[in-house]
TrEMBL record:
Highest taxon listed in the record's lineage: Eukaryota
Stated name of the protein: Very-long-chain (3R)-3-hydroxyacyl-CoA dehydratase
GO process annotations (BP): fatty acid elongation; sphingolipid biosynthetic process; very long-chain fatty acid biosynthetic process
EC number(s) reported in the record: 4.2.1.134
Domain CS residue range list: 7-96
InterPro entries: CS_dom, HSP20-like_chaperone, Tyr_Pase-like_PTPLA
GO molecular function: very-long-chain (3R)-3-hydroxyacyl-CoA dehydratase activity
Pfam families: PTPLA
Length: 364
């Protein structure tokens, strides 16, 4: 009679980060250890003391996504720790290709993090590295750190003063003139708004040069979007300058910025006000979508004006017609505007979650 020996599998626990997979094999006094990764399958074989006593144990795992063939491991008296690097930095929904989890596999709750916690851990590591890098030039050139903070503080101060002037001016005029203030907003506010929005180009340059840690793309989406509304829609069309939508666009912009810029000012001098921090990470939730909605109304109101005046129209060959109205470009821009809203809203929401999660951790 032929007797088939049952394959013995040890208890295996797993966890992940964006770049690595961690495996903990419950096997003590390990001998003849053989671990390899080939064709994206990890194979493990060893002799040791496990759930079935002293025996030879083995298992294999076919990973969900590609991993690097190099495997690092460390054996202790109680277990074998294995680290496998992912080919790409990403978060996996599960460990293996097969949806049904193997019976011998379980989460390693000692190392388990969900995706947002892993992002926070990664950010904390980056911040520690950045703090070291920021301190390094200051050791030899103490004025470097002072110049950087001084520049950022002054930039945020100037923007805060500019948008505060806009907000206070519009609020006072609203109380004095009522609805009449809607229709001459552009003529009284535009010069200061031009100044602030031209200066806001620095918000794209600063992260590109590494002066601040925010992303370049979210800043570019906001700066370019606002400048299209200000310079192209309002600035080039006199017919738009007397419309009430100008008031709502400018007012919503200034309400957001009179909170954002003082928050950054205090951050430059390593200071924080709890109320201001809460407003910085909360006030955008209603105001940002309302601002985009007001901008969309301005674009829609400008479409027939561009069709009529043929301003910025694109010349075409005679066979195709005289020109292509700029309004078609703006219709495409409307779609991109709401796509930008989604991207920036998601970015800001993640910022908010990370900020308040970090504060809770510090409190505990």
């Amino acid at each position: 009679l032929r007797v088939e020996m049952q394959t013995l599998t040890p208890h295996v626990y797993w966890a992940q980060r964006h770049s690595e997979i961690y495996l903990r094999v419950e096997l003590s006094d390990v001998q003849n250890l053989d671990i390899s990764v080939q064709d994206n399958i990890l194979r493990f074989r060893a002799q040791g003391h496990g759930a079935k006593g002293d025996n030879e144990y083995e298992f294999s795992l076919e990973f969900l996504e590609p991993v690097k063939p190099e495997v690092t491991h460390r054996s202790t008296q109680r277990q074998v720790n294995i680290t496998v690097k992912k080919q790409e930095h990403s978060w996996w929904d599960r460990l293996t290709v097969q949806e049904r989890k193997p019976l011998f596999l379980a989460p390693d709750f000692d190392r388990w993090l969900d995706e947002s916690d892993a992002e926070m851990e990664l950010r904390e590591k980056e911040e520690r590295i950045n703090r070291y890098l920021n301190q390094t030039p200051a050791l030899f050139f103490p004025e470097f750190l002072g110049l950087k903070k001084g520049y950022l503080f002054m930039y945020n101060l100037v923007q805060f003063l500019g948008f505060s002037w806009i907000f206070v001016n519009m609020t006072v005029r609203l109380f004095i003139l009522g609805q009449d203030s809607f229709y001459d907003t552009f003529h009284t506010i535009a010069d200061m708004m031009y100044f602030c929005q031209i200066l806001a180009v620095a918000e794209v340059v600063n992260p590109a040069l590494g002066l601040v840690k925010t992303g370049v793309m979210p800043a570019m989406i906001q700066v370019v979007g606002r400048n299209v509304i200000l310079f192209v829609i309002f600035g080039s069309l006199e017919e738009m300058q007397n419309k009430a939508v100008v008031f709502f666009v400018f007012y919503l912009w200034s309400m957001i910025e009179i909170v954002r810029y003082p928050y950054y000012m205090l951050a430059c001098i390593d200071n924080e006000w709890k109320l201001l921090t809460w407003l910085r990470y909360s006030i955008w939730i209603p105001l940002y979508p309302l601002g985009v909605l007001a901008e969309a109304v301005a674009v829609i109101q400008s479409l027939p004006i561009f069709d009529e005046t043929r301003l910025y129209s694109i010349p075409l060959p005679k066979a195709l017609g005289q020109s292509l109205s700029f309004s078609y470009t703006l219709q495409l821009y409307l779609v991109l505007m709401f796509l930008g809203l989604f991207i920036n809203f998601r970015h800001l929401f993640k910022q908010r979650m990370r900020r308040f999660r970090a504060k809770k951790r510090k409190a505990h």
